[in-house]
């Protein structure tokens, strides 16, 4: 707080820049008069800020449309935010697939690409595929690598602040991998690595099933289940970045993996073999008794894990994503059981973004990073300790 | 943000008041020169604010000590915060006991009182005891009821924002009780009701075992276990105020109460009969096999519940309080199991405040409320959506 009152004249300038930039991005092609009205700032202040943004290449003069040019002798100058002043990537690295989304500085997706990759692929091979997907996407989109402003990456595992994977059992060679460092060699811009379920939670809040709620849990349902949560609209990473790692819950006195639960033969399925899982679910739908029992065991586990999260966090909304969400019968048992144990059970809904959730969240994290720089206002005013 | 930039001249005044007041409370009896140096504000600004605080009765002139008076011809005027300008209460309503703490506006406890109450007492009787404890405490302390600025109350159960108990199975007649409304009749100041485990979490962070950590889980261990958590130093209540209600976790496929688990006869103990529990623990210490098995079952349950919380929230520190914390052998199994399931297991420690935790937290919540009013700075600067 002393920053604000102790005399940081640049802070007010930065606040004003942020206000004007927000207004510019929200309001089509506003005139200076529009901006003055929207922001409540004085005309000279608005002019000064717009001039600065102009020089930074973030704002250009918009061409007045013809009707207005005809109506008025000399139309007021209009301005617009230059989303094309820089680009962002959102990348998902999964067990079976790597994918990437491209957007301008407004976060609107303008390109996408993906490749399949084997669940047994080693880290080097997986990273090669990531680089190939990105190179291909940039080339197809005609975007120079040098115009990238930030790259967000969603990956399974517990991810450190510097992008090192502290633990990642879902992918071979992933635990201990300095993922951020490895990827940074390919870019001149910041690379931000986030746990996949955390990224998906951010995505559903941004443009998916959770745009109306700030208190959500996103469950990445599958053989290696994980969860991400937003509290008051902010990602809750936990003290060590491991919040929501409910995959370990089943260890509590029950050393049985999902691959065990879903087995119809007594021998567990191959780790992460989702094809085999799909077969079990298909058989269950056809009425096979053993398959039904296996699916029932799997769903009970999932319900238990999600219920534990719901009791701990008390979210408004639970969004279920991941491949298990596409299988029959996940939602109803979840709703039923949560209603039993929670006084005010959260709403339960399916992911709207589906397979795109993790990459979309990674893109949003890249956008957050760039916006933080554009709108940098440090030392928020607060009097609570 | 538009508040700040859109022309709210009083905001800066309020920020300045908060800065000066913080400095006054931290710095003994500062002079105006001291305050100017500490706050970085201009001399006229500091003078104006101190004058305002003086008029509001929150600041008085401190008497210079004699040595200084001798040393200088005309010593600079010194000022001090008037903690005695108002009083606060922190109240705990428990199954077996009601208690209250009294403090000035600096939060320093100047008086305390408590009464035992039967776990079978109905709500009216329990509230009568609460009023009696408070009346007695005020009388003994020579504090007029009219000088109370806020009353904080910690109670078992899920508590609504208005102080209504939405669910409270630990106390007879508690579910649905408009606790805040009932207590407000006795006071002219605000009455704030909070879940007991939440209040205890706040207390341990304020002046207990968690002063060094902002990411904590407080476990109120006992027959009706609950938990409260701070995330980034702030109380996490959850969307519906039910976060941390891990007591319901045991319902997940295991409809067994702690009273069942602790039974050595097959017949469950009386609900909330902590005397009977103490007997079981004592027998276990003496080597009784059935009692040891019962205690083991109880501890396993507790460990499971806390592990679920730790996996969901990933705290830095788990503080164990409540009566079970005073019993042997809660801490070690908890540490051992958390180390098994958490990649970066939280530290586990006992409550430092013990029986005073809930009332202390309630007092802090009352203090928070008053400070918010004193230092009211609305519309914190933020540019993130």
Automatic annotation (TrEMBL), chains A, B:
It comes from the Bacteria. SUPFAM superfamilies: Actin-like ATPase domain, Winged helix' DNA-binding domain. Pfam families: HTH_IclR, ROK. InterPro entries: ATPase_NBD, ROK, Tscrpt_reg_IclR_N, WH-like_DNA-bd_sf, WH_DNA-bd_sf. GO terms for biological process: regulation of DNA-templated transcription. Residues 20-60 form the HTH iclR-type domain. Coiled coil: none annotated. Gene3D superfamilies: 3.30.420.40, Winged helix-like DNA-binding domain superfamily/Winged helix DNA-binding domain. Belongs to the ROK (NagC/XylR) family. This is Transcriptional regulator.
